[in-house]
Structure formats: structure tokens, C-alpha cells
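User: I'm curious whether this sequence folds into something compact or stays loose and floppy. Could you predict its structure so I can see for myself?
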Amino acid sequence: MNILFVAGFGPVSSDMAKSRSLYIEALGINFKEEEGGYLHTEKLAGCKAFAVWPLEQAAESCFGKNQWPEDVPKPKAWLEFDVDNVESATEELKQKGWKILLENKLEPWGQKVSRFLDPDGTLVAVTYSPWMRN
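Assistant: Here's the prediction. I'll summarize afterward.
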């Protein structure tokens, strides 16, 4: 697997009001807001994208419904690594014993992604994000 860059990072929020209070009001981060309350910026140095991702939207992406399954630990953060090839990276992860929650999905915004949980509950992804590549 060849990781090219960190495509994005941020918390997964189960309380968007408190997250807004911290990230917007206290820290002064200027976000663009998408439908459903997804907050993101591509203007923080050192990170291609930083976003506060509502738990309901993370659940929708991984499981096709807006509620996180009770039998799967709820993530507290997300981390995406852009790779040369999502399919081969996903297969490599599976061969090494990682349980893939979402496999090789093409998102409506053009990103291909596979997601899994790391040992600490971070929602990790291997991705292909064409708009981030030069």
C-alpha cells in the first residue's frame, strides 16, 4: 500500500451544538456547512481537509442508515489516507485481518473509499480523492 497523503481528519460528533461551540466559537475555525450539519474547511495549513462529521452521517456512509449500530463501537474521530489504489489497499487490509465496514464505495462527490475502525475507535479510511491531487 502506498499512502500519498492525509486526505482529512476530524472528530465524529454526537453533539453538534457542543462541537460548534468549541470549533467555531472558541477556536474560531471558519467552516463551510453542508446539508445535515457537516462542517468542513480546506483552509487549515497542514491538513487537506478538517471536518466535524455528524455521527448520523458517518453511519449513513458506512451502513446506509443514519443510526450507528449498537454492536459496533462509535467512532470519536475520522482519518483518511489517500492511496494509489483503494481496491488493492482494501484487499491488503482484509488479508491482514481488518474488518472493513464500507468497501470500495464511490461517494456522490467523487471520492472512492473503504472504511474500518482502528483499535482505538477511530474511523479510518483509504481513499481516492481526485480533487485533492495535483
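Summary: The longest strand covers residues 3-13. The chain has a mean pLDDT of 92.
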